[in-house]
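Hi Y.,

Following your request, here is the sequence exactly as I used it, all 225 residues.
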Amino acid sequence: MSDTQPIAAATNEARKGDVVAPTKEKGWFYTDTVKDHFFHPKNFLEDEADYKDAYMGMVGSPACGDAMKVWLKIEDNKIKDFKWKTFGCASAIASTSMLSVMVTENGGMPVEEALKLRPQDIMARLGGLPARKVHCSVLGDKALRSAVNDYYRKSGQIEKIEVEAGRIIDKVLKITDHDIEEAVLEGADTLEKVQQRTKVGTGDPSCIPEVEQLIRFYKEKYFGA
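Below is the corresponding structure, written out as tokens. Let me know if you'd prefer a different format.
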């Protein structure tokens, strides 16, 4: 396992604005908790053959970046076991490892409660993540939801399945709210930065007020700002 980002930052200036930290005076890149879950991941699945009967969820693609698979074993509507594999950076590995602990501790978390977990909850347990890596905690959240959908599907609870369908914001370039969400997660915190990544609004300028509203919404949702 490796990561393109260094474990320690070179200078305080290099870290400025890059770390989601519980206390602003701290100047670090990865917390000890993140490093522990990276170097000693919990609940990592070695052999998929052992979990053929588990509920499986997957998000992302190894061809284009981070990818993640999770396997759940659910009894009496509680998550009793959570195994995972991920192709990604230290933040993706640590986030998934921590998520697997969170949903299985204390006898297992009820499925509905697990679905309420937010990326901020995972980051809080990790002690913070670099801002540019927040999307890695979202991967675990989305993979969990995918596995729960598999559980609902196979247990006949079809009405509970949640399908993520992007709503088109820029009707000319076919850019969705999910495209904007991903841009914000990757560090685009202004309209100009989102446009640099997605070109939203250049095809349909009339959508810009809605784009600005979505940027504010996603910043509040994921960063509390």
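DSSP finds nine helices and six strands in the chain.

Thanks again,
Q.
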